[in-house]
Amino acid sequence: MIVETNSIPMYPCIDGLRFRQVNAEADFGEMARIFNLVAPVHDPGFTPLTAEDLAKQSADQSPNHLVVEVKGQVVGWGSCESYRQRARLHIGAHEFYLLPEWRGQGIEQAVLGFFEARVAELLRDCPPDQAVYKIFLHEEDAEKIALLEANGYSRLAAHAIMVRPDLEQIPDCPLPDGMEIRPFEADHLRQAYDVLREAFSEHIHGSDPSDEDFEAWSQDETFADRSLWVVTWDVKNNRIAGVIFNFILQEENQYYHRQRGYVEFISVLKAYRGRGLARAMIAASLHLHKQRGMTEAALSSHTENPFNPIAIYLDMGFQIRYHVVVYSKPVHTPVD
To answer: Check: CATH 3.40.630.30 for 5-157?
Structure first.
C-alpha cells in the first residue's frame, strides 16, 4: 500500500522516492539487512535481526510500519507504537533506519512527521496532557538528537549502561538480619511482580500494576529462566522484601563471543532500603551468573535516581561504559 504524499509532512523532492507500508514477508529480508548495517553504529548492545524476527515483530502492525524506497530499492524503514505506562500516562515511540548514503536529504524529517502523526492518531482518545513521545537514543547519536531537538524534543533522562568486566573477587555482602534468599517458586510470581512495580513506582519509566501488565510481564521470554532470580524474604513477616530478575541473552553472547549475565530490575521495597539488601542481592546474582559459566555482568541505571544506586554499583565492581538518553515532547492529538 502506497502512503499518500499528502500524509507525509515536508515530503522531500527525490526522484523515484516512495513511502509505503510493509509488503508482507517480501520486505523483511531487506529490512533486516538495513537494520543490521545501520543499527550497530550507535548501539553497542546491538544484536542482529533476521527476516523471521521481523515477521514475528510486525504481525498485525503494518499501519505502524513504513518502508522508504527509491526507484524500487528499499533504502530505509521504521515503525512506531503506543503503550500505557501508567494509568494517566500514554507513550508514543518511533524508530527509523536509513542507509547512510540517503541521509541529510530530508527523508528523516519526513518520516518523523509521519510517525508523529500516526502516534497522535493512535492516541486520539487520550487527554492531551497525558500523552508524550519518549525516544531512547545512544548519547553519541548526534544526527538523531539534532533532528529531535529541532522538532521540539527535550532531554528527559539518561541511563548509565554499566559492566562488571569479570566475576572475580565478588564482595562479601551478607544479608541483613531476618532476611533469607529462597529458591523461586511458581506461586511467588505475582508477589514478585508486585514488589517490582512497587519498588519502581517512582521511577521515571515505572508502570502501574495491573492484571493485563502482569500477564504480559509473566510471558516475557527474557525472564523465562526464573532459576536465575534472586528472591529475598523477610522471614518474620513471610513476605518478599526484594528481588533481582537476572537473565542471560544467549544469542547476544554468541554474537559478541562473550559470556555476560544481566543483573537487572533490582527491586527493594522502601521499608527495607538502607540496610545493605541490594548489595547482598547483587553479590548473590554475580555468584549465580558465575555458576552458570558467565565471565562478566551488566546492568543499567537511571542517572537521576534520588537513591543514587550508581554509587552502589560502582562499589560492586561495575563500570560505566556509555549512556542512553531519553528525549520527549507532548503528543498533540487530533481534534475532531
So the answer is: yes
